[in-house]
Structures are given as C-alpha cells and as structure tokens.
Amino acid sequence: DNGTHNVVRLVDVVKVFRMGQQEVRALKGINLAIRSGEYLSIMGPSGSGKSTLFNMIGALDKPTSGRVFIDEVDVSQLDAYELAWLRCRKIGYIFQTFNLIQVMTAMENVTLPMIFAGMSRDEYVEKGMELLQLVGLAERYQHKPPELSGGQQQRVAIARALANDPAIILADEPTGNLDLATGEEIIGLLKRLSAERGVTIISATHDIKMLNVSDRVVWIRDGMVDRIEDREELKITVGEVG
Ligand code: ADP
Ligand code: MG
C-alpha cells in the first residue's frame, strides 16, 4: 500500500438514455478505480460517452445499472441531503461553459458554496480572496462574468470549485471554450492544484494538451474503456532510457 486509496470506483456502470422509441447505450459496462491524488484524463471522440461518464463519477446522474462508490460509499444508498453534501463539500465541478452566476461578482460566485457550507463571514471573505489570488484574479473580485474573458471566467470557476477544499475536482472539457494559449494556462493551473494541494483531478476532455499533465488516461470508445494508459510509467521508462 503506497498510502493511496480509491476515491472513486465504478463497477459495471451502464447508462441507457431512452427518448421515445429511441435508445442510446451511452455507457456499456464501465469498470474504473480512481486513486487518491492522481490526475486522470478521460479521452475519446465526441459522443463516446465522456460527459455521461463524468456525470456518473460526480454523482450528477444515476447509472441504469451498476454501482458508483465515492470514498467507498455506494452513492445510490445516499439520500438527497447526503448527496447534496457530497456535491457541495467533497467534489468541485468545472464545466466547459463555466456555469457562473452571471449577475454575481467573481467574489460572490466563489464564496457562495462557502456560505452554503455554513462558513462565517470573516472566514469566507478571507478564503474567497485567497482563492481569487491563487487563480490570479484578486484585482477583479468585483467583476461579473460578462466583464471577464473566457479564461478569467474559467479561473473564477476553478476558485469556486475549490471553495470547500474538495478532495476531488471534476472538470468536463475545461478548455473546450478557450483558445489554445488560455487553455494551456488552465491546464497548468489544474496541474498545480494536483501537485501542490494533492487534489484528485478528473478531467473529461479531447484536448490532447491534457496528455502531458495526466498520470493516467482512460481512453473511451463507444461507451467502453478502450484502454488505460499509465503516463507515469511512460515518464519513468523514458527517463530510464535517456
Ligand atoms: P461525449 O461527452 O464523449 O461527447 P456524451 O457522454 O455527451 O459524449 O454522449 C454519449 C452518447 O449519449 C451520445 O450518443 C449522446 O447523444 C448520448 N446522450 C448523452 N446525454 C444524453 C441525454 N441526456 N439524452 C439522450 N442521449 C444522450
Ligand atoms: Mg462531453
């Protein structure tokens, strides 16, 4: 045991979407164990099931069959309030479209989850500023999303995801709406969180720039795990050869 445990474990996860007579088998039996502290990327072509898998891992949607364990707790056994607690405290979510509240300032967006979690005013004011500083946006704390660039909005979303010190950051196409250079900045920021804070990062993406920062890459094809690539092993092998 190297001190890590499975933060998320999926067992035979199947997801079928039914729309009238149509049936889409988006996930066809996924088995996956995600280790604490790793940077895991889920890659695959459009429509391969990345977002569906993302929603299973983050307990945002229920599998048609199979089990999802977060910290070895079967999430299907949780009631609505326990699930809300999990989503607010244990996991920080980042989406392609940022999903910030448009009428609220950067500071308000970041502190809202802290207020939900019952943090005192002094605490959330200090922590909000600290997180905006971390993502390089301290001077813009009073700006609302429409007054910020895409990259800046995604930085706010990352700060918000960190509000309650989650063990897991889940990011679905975090660079999908950003230009290349800005996307790279966001990837660098996620990597820093992983390296410096030990946060488990799970990112569904088709941005190949994510490959270089990932410890493992799960390649999804047609709702199935095609292969799992261990980038750490790759780095070690390359290092030994050179
Ligand atoms: P990706 O994120 O890799 O592009 P998705 O997980 O979004 O893929 O989609 C996988 C498959 O499931 C696609 O065929 C998509 O059309 C279908 N799908 C996803 N979400 C829904 C939904 N809510 N209702 C019906 N079909 C869906
Ligand atoms: Mg997607």
From TrEMBL:
Any one GO CC term of the record: membrane protein complex
Keywords, sorted A to Z: ATP-binding, Nucleotide-binding, Transport
Superkingdom per UniProt: Bacteria
GO molecular function: ATP binding; ATP hydrolysis activity; transmembrane transporter activity
ABC transporter domain ranges (all copies): 8-241
Cell inner membrane found in the keyword field: no
Family designation: Belongs to the ABC transporter superfamily. Macrolide exporter (TC 3.A.1.122) family.
Name under which the protein is recorded: Putative ABC transport system ATP-binding protein
